[in-house]
Amino acid sequence: MSETVNSKVDFQTMEEILKSFDYKKSYLIAMLQKVQAIYKYLPEEAMTYIGEHVDGLSPATVFGVATFYAQFSLEPKGKYEIKVCDGTACHVRGSLPVLNAIKEKIKLEEGKFTTKDGLFTLEIVSCLGACGLAPVVVINEKVYPQMTPDAITIILDTLMKEEQ
Amino acid sequence: MTLNIDIKEEQRKAQETISQQGLRVLVCAGTGCVANGSLKVIERFKELGADVSTLTEHDKMTIVPTGCHGFCEQGVLVIIPDKHVTYVKVKETDVEEIYESHVKNNQPVERLLYTDPLSGQHVHKNEEINFYAKQTRTALANCGKINAECLEEAIAVRGYEALANVIAAGNPDAVIDEIEKSGLRGRGGGGFPTGRKWRFTAANKGGKSYVVCNGDEGDPGAFMDRSIMEGDPHKLIEGMAIAAYAIGADEGYIYVRAEYPLAIKRLRKAIADAEAKNYLGKNIMGSDFSFDLHIKEGAGAFVCGEETALIASIEGERGMPRPKPPFPANKGLFGRPTLINNVETLANVPVIMLNGADWFAQMGTETSKGTKTFALTGDVNNTGLIEVPMGTTLREIVFDIGGGMRDGKKFKAVQIGGPSGGCLTEEHLDIPMDYDNLIKAGAMVGSGGLVVMSDKTCIVEVARFFMNFTQNESCGKCVPCREGTKNMLAILQKIVDGNGTMEDLDTLEELAKNVKEGSLCGLGKTAPNPVLSTLKYFRDEYIAHIKDKKCPAGVCSKMTSYVIDPEKCKGCSKCARNCPVEAISGEIKSPFTINQDKCIKCGACIDNCPFKAIERK
Fold first, then answer.
1. Interface of chain A against chain B, CB under 8 Å?
2. Which residue of A has its CA nearest to B34?
3. In this structure, are B333 and B266 located in the same domain?
4. Which residues of chain B have a CB within 8 Å of the CB of A93?
5. Which residues contact B455 (CB under 8 A, 6 or more apart)?
6. ipTM value for the complex
7. Where in the sequence is the domain holding B589, given as residue range(s)?
8. What's the pTM?
9. Which CATH architecture has domain A80-163?
10. Which of B431, B494, B510, B512 has its CA 20 to 30 A from that of B69?
């Protein structure tokens, strides 16, 4: 890991997180969720810290849990997290054209999830439980119902303009 | 046992408070309606209602933010029970009109009433909306009728009365007898008799044991558990407390998907409120029964819906399933006896204890009692969440409650039970839907996701879609699931790409059988179902993809081509200007042509042609 990332993790914050969960290993997932809420991803140092300071855990176990669950990211996420629902209802009502429109608009490179400028991260999720509004896109917790390629392009345009 | 809380008295007080609220205006504040702007609608109503002096019939108006009504597509929903009216697709800007016209002057706002898709008429009375009229709501009874964040409203509709009765009676075994007699079966998919599960767990009474609620509603296309947790959290909590009392547990966990932030928020508040009133926690209502309830947030893994994987996840580990036996009833969470039930199952418990097992058992079929919720989505007019007695036919659900097919499309099939389920076709429209009939038809109730598909849906693509999902979510612990799903997906991909062979179909079927038999947990055991069921009913469609290299629904892009009809084309050049890859050429005022080698099949030309001269073949 580079030094810039290293300097980001504040061990006092880490200690407070562990303390709030009583250093219990059964709260590992909740600890990682807290870490991710602060840093927007799981820095390696934070995972190592948990592995070394909680009884019954090791950095390897923590890494194992972190890589198992889709919610955790080991890379920094963009300022805007775009979640495109591709659950059955959204799929049947055309989530893929919406997804393609987003990829084109934010100019995402093949095989990447976050744009070069660090502005957008694109994720495909399987169901957000808002099936009546299909297809659904969520950007930073805000739900956009009944999306079309045109509609999402306009939304992204607005966000991009705000950033300029 | 005598309790220090008189629940009937609490109920009377709560009802009195509500009766003093004047005109109650219910505004849906479920995930769907919030996305459509219901919070702004609520704010606007509150602003207008601040000046009560202008009201004629009522002395005041109370705005009640409720949980999900199930009719998400018509959101934002505003219901005024006293006036028997439901307004649909309400926007912030419509509120003033409703207030001025209907609340103050008793004149309904016609344009905001629900329009029946079949008759094209506005529906004036709530009771006449087919979507609701044909349902029987028990688990969802209060969803959308009460303020989900208010304990008092839950009390007013008999919340915690069943728990108080059960504790006062002091006979845990009688509770298990009653649940067993009701015939309630697990609503999460498996359909295991709930009473029997309770009895197995209760047999290990003595030391520490747990009650766990499975709220990891992972099946794409299903959202009944979310609606219950958001719309009536106290019913779930009460159901868990009754279960804990019956099996002798003193601690419980609700495992909720992290994708449901609103459900988590409302459950947290509901637990805190119930604890403050001593309906949860130590020595509940002054008895010697204690029950502590915690929430565990999931982190995005479908396999955690499997009970042993869910236990591993609560323990803070990778959510991988464990071999059974030992069953959780003997050795579950932290190695202790554990009862795991799904949200909908537990929400039925207080209702059964209040109305009796016989009342519950009179609904449904011989082997499947009570009601079942279904999430109705896809190519149907009324999408949303419904609850009907077990044994209701698919025809009633799709064509009566669902209001028929959307845009006049032709009914082709229904996919039921998500990635573990199968397809039902026209021939199944009239069979009574229950656990056993659906298994016979090669499908399953599953969690209750019901996706209606038209002739514009490619069945092979749908099978590929589900296989892609299960393959992604396979945890990788056992070989048949890990490798088998991967190979099945590869074959399906080959077929939709137009490269399949007839031998591939045989390999696909053989793999499906092996994955089904050899996998460790439910995820792998059911993963091949969508493939097997579509092969059974739509083999022709697979063969069309393989032999004729054609997708009958015109979905699979590798097999479709866009062609301009020279008769209809006026040579306006609009398609050529909109083509992103310059595949269309021609001279103005004479028919244009598409270069098939360059075409990427994006469909931009079809969308832009003013003369409908382009066809997808």
1. 24-30, 32-33, 64-65, 68-72, 86-89, 91-93, 97, 100, 125-134, 136, 141, 143-145
2. A143
3. yes
4. 378
5. B409, B410, B412, B553
6. 0.88
7. 561-616
8. 0.92
9. 3-Layer(aba) Sandwich (3.40)
10. B431
